[in-house]
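Exercise: predict the structure of this protein bound to iron/sulfur cluster.
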Amino acid sequence: MSIDIRCARLDPEEISRNYSELHTPLTELQAIQESARCLFCHDAPCTEACPTDIDIPGFIRKIASGNVKGAANTILSENIMGNTCGNVCPVEELCEQVCVKKTAEEKPVVIGQLQRYATDHVLENWIQLFQRAPQSGKKAAVVGGGPAGLSCAHRLAMLGHEVTLYESRDKPGGLNEYGLAAYKMLDDRAAREIAYILDIGGINIMTGKTLGKDFELAELRRDYDAVFIGLGHNAVNALGLENEAVDGAHNAVDFIELIRQEDLSTLPVGRQVIIIGGGNTAIDMAVQIKKLGAESVTMVYRRGLDEMGATEYEQQVAQTNGVLIRTHAKPHRILTLDDQLNAVEFEYTQNDADGRLTGSGEKFVLPADQLFKAIGQALDATPLDGEETPEISHGRIKVDESQHTSLPDVWAGGDCTAGKDLTVTAVQDGKIAATSMNEYLNHG
Ligand code: SF4
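Solution:
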């Protein structure tokens, strides 16, 4: 197979069309009509299913009565990144999944889109809904400017504490700025939300500062009254195969970051592209490279469709964008030609008598000029090394129900702790941690 990786496989207008909004924003009329479909359930299963406990019928009722600012207040008081979550939350598995309007004949209330409608209103009109409490005189450090760190920093600042947020990159946002599919978070949407969060004041951002390199946990514990760690996933899992670093093979998270930050028409795009993995990152990568003009995109996952980390809705998005999903196969060899990626050999998988996944011995080869690995990320805990470190359990920082670590003055949340790796759960972790930290800061 000839190697044909090319930039600008499509013209810029076509790329721009492909990267237009997944859901066009609701108009005022649509929002009012949709909110009228809500039954304002007393026991609100949608709120029960929301990881950040948003009073969903409460905000929908406000939209129905024309109080859009009030609706945004209800949302953002519980989830300061409610605008992002309105765009990217897997609502089909959370609030909309349990909406009582969802029947064979009817679709659920589009809660995510209504949430976005309300929060767009305050972000676009820059209506600041939050003020700081009188200064407490206490200082907190937050490590990591992703959703967990930003949520924690915002709540601490609101409660009157002075916050310093350390971020290793040159701007905060974490996964929201660098890791979400570009067609889900268009333009400067993520940056605008972060600016709104920081607008509350009392949050000093230190960018380009990496834990374990530029500063140590022990220093933070000495210089601040309390510390929050929101490191996220700072390491990428490897396939463990020869030629993994060959030309044409990429980590999906690195490439998704390029898509978010670079001119789309300058990115290398293969003709025959393989994505290895079955989570939302694999889907985001597959859909985005197809939208950039790859001819064939095949996602290969070692288990069945129902075991994929990606939701059924995400799988449908991939398939409607022309991505072929192959299951029950794992990569066996990466084949090269003239030091470039040429193909990937896979082995079919099966479950043995104990239910363990094993290779069946039967193999097949898929030609490829571009390969993306999306087999998960992990916490590299070495930056936390020092005399006293928070306890690690199953590869994540161990926390209690208040997001408190094993150290008395250190809390943690987001992907570096156990739980679902979602923006919405990270925001909730940061919020819970800030509430507990506030208690500690005020009463010791
Ligand atoms: Fe409204 Fe559906 Fe929630 Fe009931 S479950 S309150 S109908 S959004």
